[in-house]
Every structure is written in structure tokens, then in C-alpha cells.
TrEMBL record:
Superkingdom classification of source: Eukaryota
Keywords noted in UniProt: Aspartyl protease, Glycoprotein, Hydrolase, Protease
Domain Peptidase A1 intervals: 114-467
Pfam families: TAXi_C (PF14541), TAXi_N (PF14543)
InterPro entries cross-referenced by the UniProt entry: Aspartic_peptidase_A1 (IPR001461), Aspartic_peptidase_AS (IPR001969), Pepsin-like_plant (IPR034161), PEPTIDASE_A1 (IPR033121), Peptidase_aspartic_dom_sf (IPR021109), Plant_Aspart_Prot_A1 (IPR051708), TAXi_C (IPR032799), TAXi_N (IPR032861)
Protein known as: Aspartic proteinase nepenthesin-2-like
Organism the protein comes from: Camelina sativa
Family to which the UniProt record says this protein belongs: Belongs to the peptidase A1 family.
CDD domains: pepsin_A_like_plant
Keyword Hydrolase: yes
Length: 472
């Protein structure tokens, strides 16, 4: 104290400097004390959480190599996953706009399905495939290592070994043994290099072959072409079923990690849409299946957007139907018919032609509509598996039928065109386009009921929007 006073008296200017330094030191001491208090408080809080354990956080980090049974399957899975990821990154940077694929009726090929064309392999070969929102697997009629029917019944054949980008999935891989089980992969695996095989089942028919990764070339809305690399496809050496008449394969559009939808929406955005032309239209009449672009026709459409349930009946696109009305009359249908948790529920399916309803919904619908058709003679045409068919040779004004309406959650109302539920089954014969699915059962809104409507699936928002359209 004495020294400081003397110094100030002898050198006032120096004393001021010394005083400023002392104040700074005092501030630093206060900051240090505050810092210590904060640190102490944090340590006390951590100790309060668990005073008996180490205060650090430790998470085990393991490389995925530990999951593979042998080096060959490990390398195949690693390179496959990495190539696919890099391909998606590259393609996202490269392509602008959306995918645009022609979509037409299969009436000229004697089937009630809708077709599009895809180009498979390198060099790319064109194939006509069924557009199926209820199928996970995209496959083509294929010949590989001498197996396959080859070209028959006007079908094209994909010769896998002539494609530079064709790579089979090994039967010993995690992909085959675990990931593809829901796609009916088989357990046959004589050697690790043997391709992963499948027996993919449909409601009617099946397809057998081997899984592979391949390049598919598609058109873009900009007019350019895009090559989508590393897509999972099926190389089908044999298949059966009426649905495949006139087709070279199937374009799987279900909500699945392995469907074409999964890759297309990851590249071009989480929306896809289609508009189904009249099912009796010839092949020169078509519309488009589009991925990525949003349609203005479904925007701001009151009463035409409903939640899309993507987890309740996987891998199908489930909608929340809550009732059906004819005209102004709501039909007496038990609520459990529409409850997916009770074995019911409803899906939208482009791969099913007619509309299937649980028996408790089917009876009120067909008997209610039949009351308006009493002037027509009831007939049973050979080969037509529909219960309510009528002779229409004398002509019939469809406007006499009441408007059938599907009422959906959120207030949406789907009002199909009358020709969609009183369908032309044969010359001079009209049938109610419904079949009983039994009890309990999943209700299916088929492609004929969907015709002349634009449907837009928003997988990010989990919504379905729709609007009537000529689709031309």
C-alpha cells in the first residue's frame, strides 16, 4: 500500500496507468470466478444425474462388415450399396424436371391392364410393361445363361448377358437373404456366386427368375433422356397369369424400398401421378405416368384431397374410405369394413381391373344400383366373372343411374364416371363393375373405376389428390 501511494505521488501519469491495470486484473478475477462457478455448477449437475458413473458419453461404433458371413457377400453388398448411393447423388445433380412415361390401355392386347414402355440395359432395349401400383418388383421377360422362353406370343425378350450394365444379386448376400424376402426370394444357394432367385406371387399367376441390378432409361418432361443406374429388376425366365397377356413384364410402383417408385421419387421429388384413359381406348390413345412434376389440375381442388396411409397396408397405397352413397342416400355399410386394423381398409390399385368390395359393402352397392336397371334383362355371359350383368341391346341411358360416391376422410369425395361402374363387358352386355372380396377383406378400387381421373400421390405429405380429366 505504501509503495503504490508513493509511486502515484511521484508520477501521477504512471499511477493512472497502474490503476487501469489493477482494474483490468480485478475484472479478469471476476470473470475467472464466474467461469469457475459455471463449471462447478455443470459438474454438480452431471454428478447429480449419476454420481456413480463416468461422466463421459460413449457410443459403440461398429463397421457394417461385422454383419456379413463371408468376404464375397460382404464386398458385393458394400459395392452395391455404395454404387447405388453414388449413382443417386450423381443423377440428382444431373437431371432436372421429372420422368414422363406414356400410359395407355391394354385393350388391343386383350387385357384390362394399363401399359407403359421402359428401356432396359446397355444398350437399352424397349419393353412393354404393366403399370402396377400394387407390385414391388419391376421385371421383364428375360433370358439368362440359357434359361428363359425367349421371344414368344409377340413378347420381347431381354438377353441379360448382352447388357453391359447387368449385374446379378448374389444368393449369399444380406440383400438376398433378408432384404428381398418380401419379394419372394428363394433360399436356394449352392455357391456364393449363384444369383439370388425368386418366385414372385400375384393374386393370379407368378413370375420366376433371378434378381439383378440394371440400368433403365426413361424420358424426362424436358424432352431429354435419363439413365437410372443400379435399379433392382427381375430377370424372369418364366411367368404365368392373365394379367400379363400382351406384356413383356411389370413396372412395380408399390410403396417399397425396392420399387421403381422408390428410385424415381428419390431423384425427382416425392410426387408421382397418372391419368388412365378409358379402358376401351386403343393403343394410339394415351396419357402419361409422371414422376416429380406437380399437376395444376389437382391444385386447389376442394374436396379432392385425402390422407394417404403408407404404413397401414404395406406396400399398398391405402385410402381412408368411410362410406359409399348412391345419389343422396348413404348406404348402410358397417364401419369395420373400412377399418384396416380389423382386416378391412381400402387401397387404390392400378393393377386390378374391377373394384372389389368386402361382402358387407358389395351387397348394398350392387343391389342398390340394380334397382335402377330393372328395365334391362339380367344375363350371365360366359367367361365373365361378374354377378350383375344386363343386356343392353335395346340401349340404356346411363344418366338414369344415381351418382356413386366414395366418401373419404377429410371430406374428400370421389365421384367416378357412370361408365366406370356400369362397364361394357361384351357386345350388348353391361355389368356392374364390382366383385365380392369376401369377409373380412381389403377393398380395392380398381383401374376401371379410376379411369378418366388424374391421380397425384404425394409421398412426402402422405396425401392423394384427384380430379376428373379426359386424359387426352
Amino acid at each position: 500500500m505504501y509503495i503504490n501511494t508513493l509511486f502515484w505521488k511521484q508520477n501521477p501519469k504512471g499511477a493512472k496507468t497502474r490503476r487501469r491495470k489493477e482494474k483490468k486484473m480485478q475484472r479478469n478475477k471476476k470473470s475467472l470466478v464466474l467461469s469457475c462457478l459455471i463449471t462447478t455448477t455443470m459438474l454438480l449437475l452431471i454428478a447429480a444425474v449419476d454420481s456413480t458413473k463416468d461422466t463421459s458419453v460413449r457410443l459403440e461404433l461398429a463397421h457394417r462388415e461385422t454383419l456379413w458371413p463371408n468376404p464375397l457377400s460382404r464386398i458385393e453388398d458394400i459395392t452395391g450399396a455404395d454404387h447405388k448411393r453414388h449413382s443417386l447423388i450423381s443423377q440428382k445433380r444431373m437431371y432436372k424436371g421429372g420422368v414422363k412415361m406414356p400410359l395407355g390401355s391394354g385393350i388391343d392386347y386383350r387385357t384390362a391392364q394399363y401399359f407403359t414402355e421402359i428401356r432396359v440395359g446397355t444398350p437399352a432395349k424397349k419393353f412393354r410393361v404393366v403399370v402396377d401400383t400394387g407390385s414391388e418388383l419391376t421385371w421383364v421377360n428375360c433370358r439368362y445363361r440359357g434359361r428363359g422362353k425367349g421371344k414368344a406370343e409377340n413378347r420381347r425378350v431381354f438377353r441379360a448377358e448382352e447388357s453391359k450394365s447387368f449385374r446379378t444379386v448374389g444368393c449369399s448376400t444380406q440383400t438376398c437373404k433378408v432384404d428381398l424376402m418380401n419379394l419372394f426370394s428363394l433360399s436356394t444357394c449352392p455357391t456364393p456366386s449363384t444369383p439370388c432367385s425368386y418366385d414372385y406371387r400375384y393374386a393370379e399367376g407368378s413370375a420366376q427368375g433371378v434378381f439383378a441390378k440394371e440400368t433403365i432409361t426413361v424420358g424426362l418432361t424436358s424432352g431429354r433422356k435419363a439413365r437410372l443406374h443400379g435399379l433392382l429388376i427381375g430377370c424372369s425366365s418364366s411367368f404365368s397369369g392373365q394379367s400379363f397377356t400382351g406384356a413383356d413384364g411389370v413396372l412395380g410402383l408399390a410403396y417399397s424400398d425396392f420399387s421403381f417408385t422408390s428410385t424415381a421419387t428419390s431423384l425427382f421429388g416425392a410426387k408421382f401421378s397418372y391419368c388412365l384413359v378409358d379402358h376401351l381406348s386403343h393403343k394410339n390413345v394415351s396419357n402419361y405416368l409422371i414422376f416429380g412434376s406437380s399437376s395444376s389440375a389437382t391444385k386447389n381442388a376442394p374436396g379432392r384431397t385425402t390422407p394417404l396411409d403408407l404404413s397401414v397396408i404395406p406396400p399398398f397405397y391405402a385410402i381412408n374410405v368411410i362410406g359409399i352413397s348412391l345419389g343422396d342416400d348413404m348406404l348402410n355399410i358397417p364401419a369395420k369394413v373400412w377399418d384396416a386394423t380389423a382386416g378391412g381398409g381400402t387401397i387404390l390399385d392400378s393393377g386390378t381391373s374391377l373394384t372389389l368390395l368386402s361382402e358387407a359393402a358389395y351387397k348394398p352397392v350392387v343391389t342398390g344400383l340394380a334397382r335402377y336397371l330393372v328395365e334391362l334383362k339380367r344375363v350371365k355371359p360366359e367367361g365373365v366373372p361378374i354377378e350383375y350383368c344386363f343386356s343392353s341391346k335395346a340401349g340404356f341411358n346411363e344418366s338414369k343411374l344415381p351418382q356413386l360416391t366414395f366418401h373419404m376422410k377429410g371430406g374428400a369425395r370421389f365421384e367416378p364416371h357412370r361408365k366406370s361402374y356400369l362397364v361394357d363387358a361384351a357386345p350388348g352386355v353391361k355389368c356392374l363393375g364390382f366383385m365380392s372380396a369376401g369377409t373380412p377383406a381389403t377393398n380395392v378400387v380398381g383401374n376401371i373405376m379410376q379411369q378418366n381421373y388424374l391421380w397425384e400421390f404425394d409421398l412426402k405429405a402422405s396425401t392423394l389428390s384427384f380430379a376428373p380429366s379426359s386424359c387426352t
